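[Discussion] Sanity-checking designs against the backbone

I'm trying to build intuition for which residues belong where. Below is a structure token string of 344 positions. I'd appreciate it if someone posts a full sequence so I can compare it with mine line by line.
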């Protein structure tokens, strides 16, 4: 612990060590820049640095002092523990990040035969008042393997993005399989492309008037207009200006108005991706949850956005098969608990 504390440059001269390995060697001098435990001549041993003796007139002042001391020393990775006080109110307020607090919740959860978070917190509150006790109770129950097997939480990754054909600007009926999912529209597009009459009396104009002109204002295979939203309006004239206004209206319509028509009920936050060697429960609709098989993830198949939606697993019979990630419920691990503490 003391190796983490740097000594001021003016005080480093008090921590000199003279070293000589052999009588024939040159005398070497070392200056210690960190607090070194064990040297009796060090001046810091006049007072014990690992103990703090202080007090206050009221419980509120003691609690404020406690918060300041813990915040300062935690920034140097020196957590304060083993508090002692003559006030039962201060002793009962244990910090939620203390390992003793989590061990207490785990012990009571097992002793009470795996009760829920509300019953666990109610029992703890009879003796202690823990800060953020509801979050710790929920975390304790969710990290319990026995409770997880009875009520597993399956992986719910973000929905895959739409194919490029669905989001690329194109004329209607250009991709009939995407527009209407019916091959009949291919025949309709061929029928609507038959020439009816010349489009103009100009002999150099070879375009003919078709039924598609009455549907979309031009041939069905006409390429879409180029994007003109990034061009300043003073550089656009007549038809190009109208096209830019229509494209700008469609962009704002699709990005600002349409998402408000339906509120998203899920996929509101990112979850941890399934990783190789994760142990998970495989869902089986024909058996109860306690009889579901345990599988080991051997390979992941992320999408273009980096989200894993398909995995390859191995069961107890050493058989490997590929399945969607929504069929798995990954068992909690110590890494998940550490990550949860860091986020808290």
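Best answer:
Here's mine. Compare freely.
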């Amino acid at each position: 612990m003391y190796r983490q504390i740097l000594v001021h440059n003016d005080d480093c001269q008090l921590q000199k060590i003279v070293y000589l390995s052999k009588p024939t060697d040159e005398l070497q001098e070392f200056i210690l820049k960190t607090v070194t435990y064990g040297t009796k001549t060090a001046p810091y041993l006049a007072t014990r640095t690992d103990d703090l003796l202080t007090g206050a007139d009221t419980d509120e002042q003691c609690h404020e002092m406690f918060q300041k001391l813990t915040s300062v020393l935690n920034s140097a990775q020196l957590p304060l523990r083993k508090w002692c006080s003559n006030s039962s109110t201060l002793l009962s307020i244990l910090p939620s990040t203390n390992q003793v607090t989590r061990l207490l919740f785990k012990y009571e959860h097992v002793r009470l035969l795996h009760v829920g978070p509300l019953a666990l917190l109610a029992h703890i509150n009879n003796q202690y008042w823990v800060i953020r006790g509801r979050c710790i109770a929920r975390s304790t129950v969710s990290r319990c393997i026995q409770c997880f097997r009875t009520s597993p939480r399956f992986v719910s990754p973000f929905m895959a993005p739409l194919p490029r054909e669905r989001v690329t600007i194109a004329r209607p009926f250009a991709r009939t399989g995407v527009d209407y999912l019916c091959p009949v529209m291919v025949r309709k597009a061929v029928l609507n492309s038959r020439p009816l009459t010349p489009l103009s009396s100009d002999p150099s104009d070879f375009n003919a008037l078709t039924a598609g002109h009455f549907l979309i204002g031009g041939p069905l295979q006409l390429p879409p207009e180029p994007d003109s939203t990034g061009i300043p309006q003073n550089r656009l004239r007549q038809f190009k200006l109208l096209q830019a206004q229509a494209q700008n209206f469609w962009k704002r319509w699709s990005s600002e108005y349409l998402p408000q028509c339906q509120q998203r009920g899920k996929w509101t936050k990112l979850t941890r991706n399934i990783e190789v060697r994760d142990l998970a429960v495989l869902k089986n609709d024909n058996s109860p949850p306690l009889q579901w098989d345990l599988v080991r993830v051997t390979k992941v198949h992320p999408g273009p956005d980096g989200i894993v939606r398909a995995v390859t697993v191995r069961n107890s019979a050493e058989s490997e098969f590929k399945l969607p990630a929504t069929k798995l419920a990954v068992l909690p691990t110590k890494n998940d608990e550490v990550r949860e503490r860091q986020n808290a």
